[in-house]
User: What shape does this take?
Amino acid sequence: MPDTLFTVFLSMGYFMLLLYLPNIIWIYGGDINIIDLLKGRHKLAKRTLNSELACSAFENYKETYPIFLFLSVLGITMGIPIHTAALIWLILRLVNGFSYLYDLNWIRTVSWHLSLLCLFWMSIEIIRLNRLTMFTHF
Assistant: This one.
């Protein structure tokens, strides 16, 4: 099982993939080329449906990613083992992103809700284990 820091690095890599994926899909679809992206966005053709779905997946990922980063860094600095919840969160977000691209609404909805539960799980573990060690230094 990877530790929390490795999961954070994996989530950053997935963030970068989702950042560039809409343009990659748009270019791969043949509607534009790389030179068109350099000229300016006001002259570009309308995005394809798959490119719009990739944009939606990225926007959805950005909604909970700061919370995940905060909880992960807090768990790392406090020495609290939340690596299982962090890894499950990342796997569920991967499933969520691919279900956006393939328009699988039920899988997308379930994976989103379960990823929120993982964030709560991370929070509860931080609170629970911090209370156990909070007064050991006095």
User: Anything to note?
Assistant: The chain has one domain: 4-19+47-133. The chain is about 80% helix and 0% strand. Residues 49-78 form the longest helix (30 residues). The radius of gyration is 19 Å.
